[in-house]
Amino acid sequence: MEPITLCGLVIVMFGLWVEFEPTVMAAVRAIRNSRMYKEAFSQSAVQRPKNVARMPVCFAKAHS
User: Fold this and answer.
1) Which of 9, 45, 46, 63, by CA, is between 20 and 30 Å from 23?
2) How far, in Å, CA of 9 to CA of 60, rounded?
3) Model pTM greater than 0.70?
């Protein structure tokens, strides 16, 4: 693409962002506040990796 075309594309994309930013941000806020999103990305209880429970004693002592 020619530089003038790229500059025009950047200007158009910036204008579209300015025009639709409130709508996009409202949609993002609605998704973040949804119950399904909170359940999917909520922090559950801290879980230890399974390999720590099965680590040989000699290996644990050598690297602590």
Assistant:
1) 9
2) 58
3) no
